[in-house]
Amino acid sequence: MMSTPAQCRSCTGAAAELFRRLSPDQWARLRDAVVAHVYQAADVVFHEGTPPLAVYCVRSGALKLYRRMNHGDEVVVGIRGAGDLVGLRAVLAGLPYWTTAAALERAIICAIPAQGFLELIGENIGLAFQLLTRLACESRSVETQLVERCQEHVGKRTARFLARVAQGSVPLASSRPGHEISIHREDMARLIGTTPETLSRTLHGLSKRGILELDRKHIKVRNLEALLKLAE
Q: What is the β-pairing status of strands 212-214 and 218-221?
């Protein structure tokens, strides 16, 4: 991990829109407080159970959020990409981070110290309202994911996940134009809510049908229309 200059004013990420309402003085305070770091794949940004010292803004790349179960397995609860804020709930509640955040790929992450962030919210009702809206949308997304895991079979969940990544709804910067997807199969299995073995069989089944093209590191969507039909 190494530091890099913060660029809040010129940042094009979705989170930058949250701060457009800040006064010049508030912008200056934000700029002076933010510390940007470069993380490589698998580097941990913060650990589950540690004090909420900062809110993290993803400038580029992607993070996975996961919890470690008692038997040692990981449960991945989401992916966050450019423009997302991570650790927000913990800072607002004053409770420890409830997940671990780790880089899925090279990422630039900006840390906003918790105290300064809370002061900005207290001073700016527009910022507070936008954060509430964002939290509501994230909660709805998590609820949808839980319902899908309970009610839908693995094939449909896999098709929906791949379609979302191919269409840019899931933030993986390492995925390339032409629907080429790059993600570790174990992480993908955890996000879908299945085992790596079941995922492998599902992917190979889609490959035999000509919907996907597989190699050891990448998945290429050859027939997005057919994938979308399976995801319905």
A: antiparallel
The tokens describing 25, both together, are: 């003085």
Which of 125, 143, 136, 118 minimizes the C-alpha distance to 53?
Answer: 118
Query: Cα separations (Å) of 49 from 23, 42, 44, 53, 191?
Result: 34, 18, 13, 12, 21
In angstroms, the Cα distances linking 134 to 4, 15, 61, 164 are 27, 10, 20, 19
CA-based end-to-end distance of the chain:
41
Look at residue 10 in the predicted model and tell me its pLDDT: 61
| pLDDT higher at 170 or 191 | 191
Rounded Cα–Cα distance for residues 5 and 60 (Å): 14
pLDDT surpasses 70 at 186: yes
φ, ψ of residue 63 in degrees (nearest 5): -120, 150
pLDDT tens for 44-54 read: 999 999 999 99
Least confident of 83-92, 107-116, 192-201: 192-201
Q: Which domains can be identified in the chain, with CATH numbers?
A: 2-147 (2.60.120.10), 152-231 (1.10.10.10)
Band (2; pLDDT cuts 50, 70, 90): low
Q: Kindly give, in sequence order, each residue whose CB lies less than 8 Å from that of residue 62, ignoring residues fewer than 6 positions away.
A: 79, 80, 81, 103, 104, 105, 107, 171, 172, 173, 174
Are 54 and 6 in contact, with CB atoms under 8 Å apart?
no
